[in-house]
Design brief:
The two termini are 23 Å apart. The chain is globular, with a radius of gyration of 14 Å. It has a single domain, classed as Nuclear Transport Factor 2, Chain: A (Roll). It is α/β, with parallel strands linked by helices. This is SnoaL-like domain-containing protein.
Length: 134
């Protein structure tokens, strides 16, 4: 993990926990994802940069790209007040067809988290596909 700001350890640890919760939510479904997102959050994803609101993104992700495994590497965290920016390489194994094994997909991901009374919530996310390493 790399931190680019002089954020308190407590804030960095809270963001690390939010990031870990997000990876778990990807494998648990729409409700788990939307619970971690602000109502007005946006996600930029797909090969043409589709922009979705929280509910549309969570529904698409769960019904069209069901994740059975997710992990992140090279997590970088920058905290500025009540806002945190994270970047990572995220690998997911996705079921596109129930008759085929899960397909590995890797993305470079940037997430913007906002601190709320309920904890850190996802305000914005941008995902860019990468070819998995050989």
């Amino acid at each position: 993990m790399t931190t680019a700001s002089a954020a308190p350890d407590k804030a960095v640890q809270a963001i690390e926990q939010a990031e870990a919760a997000w990876l778990v939510a990807l494998t648990e479904g729409e409700e788990a994802m939307t619970a971690l997102m602000l109502d007005d959050s946006r996600a930029v994803h797909g090969p043409v940069g589709k922009i979705d609101d929280a509910r549309t993104f969570a529904h698409f992700t769960w019904t069209r790209r069901r994740h059975v495994f997710a992990k992140a590497e090279q997590l970088s965290i920058t905290v500025r007040g009540n806002t945190a920016i994270t970047t990572c390489l995220q690998e997911m194994h996705i079921v596109f067809d129930e008759n085929l094994p899960p397909f590995p997909v890797q993305e470079a991901v940037t997430r913007v988290w906002e601190e709320t009374a309920e904890g850190w919530r996802l305000a914005h996310m941008h995902q860019a596909k990468r070819m998995p390493p050989v």
